[in-house]
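With this grant's support, we have settled on a layout for protein records. A representative record follows, to show the layout.
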Amino acid sequence: ELSLFAEISDTLMAPDLDIQVNSNRGRVELSGYMDFLSGSYQLNSGFEHVQLGEFLNLSELGYFSGWAEIEGSGYSLESMESDLTLRIDTLQFQDYNYRKTEIQGKISPGEYTLNLQAKDPNIHGELEAQLARTDSSVRGEAEGTLLARLDLLNFMEDTLSVESNLRAEFERGRDFLESEFYLEEMVLNTPRDRAELAQFEAYFQTDSSSTTLNARSDFLDMKLRLGKNIDELETLGKDYQSYLQTFIDPEPADSFDRVMVLPEINATGHISYHEALALFIVDPEFHFGSIDMNLVHGRTDNSISYHLDGRDFKHSVINSEQLRLSLSDSSGFLMLD
């Protein structure tokens, strides 16, 4: 069922608009004017129970109610100078109705700014973001604060609230992507416990030949370099499948060269027990002091080497001061320690 009302007055080159669309998927209203001679416009839109999830084919997304306004001039990104406002009265996502959120933005040639303020009962925050575009790259940065009840937002089953300052930067070019993400003064709360993190940092970079991922926090320090670009990461599982196949149906030539099907990898990691981890460990009897790991795939010397070293493992079925595991595969010789 669909009904349409449209009223266009004044001239075709500078019309005043009043359009209403009603259907079983929501109601949309559009009013304002567009002056094609001067390139200026002012438009207001109202949305009532618009089924965004159906239009975008996203099952997690439900309906949207709110309004939007844009005023300015220019009909292309190269010439547009506009101010816009979007107010979210209700946005349904994962069976939660987000409310009381407003976004204000400004569009200029090659530059875009955005301010988001959320005053929903279960998610409060403010975010300032800027985006700059050139012929060869896009750069962006964002900074803000967040306070959210993740369980009531249906991201977790157990009761958990998170409060943090956040910051992010990225740059994308024709054949590379680089990004950094920071959480600072982070506080996690459950009905029983509270954990604080001074900082969490993540760095991601990919180009035509490799991908790098680093992460660091109060209890974590990890570095990974992979000899594949981001578009090739989906083939990593198939690479390991081909590698493991040589053990199921081995032949001398396959055994000697089997490491060559895997990309170059150099990874190190250190995790120490922290109160923040305790919030997510289901078994209260499980505890560890630290875990160190090292993983190397070397295509030049046709070898792989995995090392895992854990300390102070405690559980009802295990109590070990040190747990060590080592695996190496070089030129067809596999060793497990």
Remarks:
- The mean pLDDT is 88.
